[in-house]
Specification:
By secondary structure, the chain is α/β, with parallel strands linked by helices. It has 13 helices and eleven strands.
Length: about 300
């Protein structure tokens, strides 16, 4: 039985006319009439006597009204129970974020969250893939993205910044002015080409790109080993032994940082709790995320 049709039936029972029921439900009167007719057809029974002064229930209508009332009460009880359960700070919570965020920013702060919410079973998935959220494989996503999917809701915080990093010995060995072809950028994608856009606004625009290393951690590691120049987020490379900034220019804004979830989860207490915690942690680390060096 169609519950929308039953709700429409109950509204007509209570107010006595199709137009009044339509106004209460925010529907067109023809929709109300159609739902009543479809409900009568599905039950193979006439539920109302149509009279000029309004709709009057038949014996079948009276019986359905009693059943519908009991069902509505049970449904509301279930809804309240579920709402109450979702508002409890217990249960499991899956969060997906990039590995540098998990290791560099969140790991040291997670004890605070565990102490505040001991009933939550937190799972952190290190991933750049947004599909895990769209497919409901995670509850919350912390993402670096200028255009997050419209299917998700959340808050944009600020942009993180990137800079150029290399091993200091590697920099000393290169003649970037006269022999730029002997040096190399560590490539991010096999679609980069020899001189991708992200290199052209730097002082190393004539240095070719080599390889395809689509991992921040791997880029940092290879740059430390002296294999080339790396354009990576400041939060992942500043302070790493064996790496220095290879430019005097200010870090470049890269992408926006978003905290995202599903529309139907945004009011759940455990989701709200972690989203508030994540915003606090990220804002506390804003300077590091934007490459502000401290003396």
């Amino acid at each position: 039985m169609d519950w929308e049709a039953v709700k429409t039936f109950r509204a007509v029972m209570e107010v006595g006319t199709v137009r009044a029921a339509a106004k209460r439900l925010g529907l067109h009167h023809s929709t109300v009439s159609r739902r009543i007719e479809q409900l009568e057809k599905s039950l193979d029974s006439r539920l109302f006597e149509r009279r000029p002064e309004g709709y009057f229930p038949t014996a079948s209508g009276e019986e359905l009204a009693r059943v519908a009332e009991r069902f509505a009460e049970e449904l509301f009880t279930v809804e309240r129970h579920i709402a109450g359960r979702d508002n409890e700070l217990t249960g499991s919570l899956k969060v997906t974020m990039a590995e540098p965020f998990a290791i560099t920013i969140f790991a040291d702060r997670l004890p605070e969250f565990f102490a505040a919410y001991p009933g939550l079973n937190l799972e952190i998935i290190t991933s750049f893939d947004l599909l895990d959220v769209a497919r409901r494989e995670a509850d919350i996503a912390i993402r670096m993205d200028n255009n997050p999917p419209e299917s998700l809701v959340g808050k944009r915080l600020f942009s993180y910044c990137s800079s150029i990093y290399a091993n200091p010995d590697y920099l000393a060995e290169q003649d970037f002015d006269n022999r730029p072809g002997d040096a190399r950028w560590l490539g991010w994608s096999d679609r980069d080409g020899r001189f991708p856009d992200w290199t052209q606004n730097s002082e190393y625009a004539r240095v070719p790109v080599w390889g395809n290393f689509a991992s921040i951690g791997l880029q940092v590691r290879l740059a430390r080993l002296g294999l080339g120049l790396a354009m990576v987020p400041c939060i992942a490379a500043d302070g790493v032994p064996g790496l220095v900034r290879a430019t005097d220019r200010e870090p470049v804004p890269a992408r926006d940082i978003w905290i995202l979830t599903h529309e139907d989860l945004r009011r759940t207490a455990r989701v709200r709790a972690f989203m508030d915690f994540a915003e606090m942690v990220l804002r506390d680390n804003r300077a590091a995320l934007q490459g502000v060096l401290t003396a």
